[in-house]
């Protein structure tokens, strides 16, 4: 069983999504992101196929009608299986483990329900492995993405030992002491799943080292002295690090368009002329630490009252994973805390926090261009591209307040004002430092941040992984 594709990508979320209108009409929308622009770099003649899940009713309808775009293969698994694999296992267990998000009273207990959900996760991974095995030409390169598909490399290798298989983790990887909260057979399956690849790659050295440490600790695997290879069950998997960077050409062109300029004018008017802007842009995601960011801003206004009326916190927090109760609650809490700050400090002419929750990419770029300070304070983050994008399009230089737990810290830490994300007082002090950074220093740092942030654009990030597989 083999197909024609010479390069294959597999990910839960694909490059295109469909909406089913009331009239039965299907409309498609292309998404962005590193893999999308990376893949476009290899050109239409490369014989590439992207295998992804049908996520919406529109996607499932497109599969049923056979209208999915050429070069894209959507898998329509049973909705209940998908729900268990995506919401219950991938986003509620694996995401929580790698971001170390469990805390009382949200500690896991792995019971019968979990076992049933895990069986669905395995079914969903098998569906991907089967589709890849069907589509791949002999000796093809397959790039499997992320924690949704950790079992795919080993499952695929069992069918198709001829393929060159890579796995890329876009998240952090948990250290062994935390990873081991998973049941032993499950942690072993996850690691052995990824070790089915020829090469397992990560966004930073830190996450790669944690993965190697888990392999040694849980499986008794052998890690090479330089930490770049793991041997287990007679096979060696190489480890790689590819720190995805910002796409400077795309961002600068997009940020220069009239719709962005219009939104800049609107935002400037809403904030009030002359006021300094502390900007953050995130999915409303537990790991992004938006509430502590707001509390740090509150502390700034308390401890440095001179900033009142002179600064505005622009927080764009776009709803995400709303099928999960913990995310719905978090989204509500972000609004509550923002409103409380506005009630506590606001005056007739000054709204201290401007919170927006409707996703608008042009408006995000407008905020990037205007920002005096960018606040990126995740509890843990695989990379964080906002930290890399803001300096690239900044109009007059930006001071970056950056969590040491974001992957981007490895590359940008020297030029940023670095915070411990749990330390609200420390973050408030960092905001004050950022606001008072002399203009010349801010401009210098922004230049160096933009340089570091763009050293591995998506096209090269993607091609490097392909080259490393051959
Ligand atoms: C993270 C993950 C991606 C995922 C994205 C959005 O960046 O690493 O794989 O696509 O979050 O999450 P969602 O659940 O909306 O796909």
TrEMBL record:
Domain of life of the organism encoding this protein: Bacteria
SUPFAM superfamilies: UDP-Glycosyltransferase/glycogen phosphorylase (SSF53756)
InterPro entries (UniProt xref): Glyco_trans_20
GO molecular function: alpha,alpha-trehalose-phosphate synthase (UDP-forming) activity; trehalose-phosphatase activity
GO biological process: trehalose biosynthetic process
GO CC entries: cytosol
Family according to the record: Belongs to the glycosyltransferase 20 family.
Family annotation (PANTHER family): BCDNA.GH08860, TREHALOSE-6-PHOSPHATE SYNTHASE
The protein's name: Trehalose 6-phosphate synthase
